[in-house]
């Protein structure tokens, strides 16, 4: 049986100002938009329905925008997602 976990993560950042991560976040968000994942689009995270409500521009932490560019609102709350985790509803 496959289960999907949504994890709420407290935000945080370091004092690093490496511009490299900014470019990676920008590329990830741009890639998500070009793939058709625009704000308002209905998606699914596994079997959980949701909608894209924004883009993760965070440069720091375990769930940075470089890897998890989509912000998806579900009945369980807000999730930061990669493009591999969501499908069109």
- Taken in chain order, the helices and strands follow as HEEEEE
β-strand amount: 25-35%
The main β sheet shows up as: 5 strands, antiparallel
Query: What structural class should be given to the helix and strand makeup?
Result: alpha+beta
- Cα(first) to Cα(last) distance is 22 Å
Number of helices: 1
Mean residue pLDDT: 85
Q: Identify low-pLDDT runs.
A: none
Molecular shape: globular
Supply database-style keywords.
5-stranded antiparallel beta sheet
Would you write up a description of this structure?
The structure is a single chain. By secondary structure, this protein is an alpha+beta fold. It contains one helix and five strands. The protein has one helix at 19-34, and strands spanning 42-45, 48-55, 70-74, 77-81, 86-88. Strands 4-3-2-1-5 form a five-stranded antiparallel beta sheet, with no helix packed on it.
Brief summary:
This protein is an alpha+beta fold and 89 residues long. It contains 1 helix and 5 strands; from the N terminus they run H-E-E-E-E-E. The protein is 18% helix and 28% strand.
How would you summarize the topology of this molecule?
Elements: H1 19-34, E1 42-45, E2 48-55, E3 70-74, E4 77-81, E5 86-88
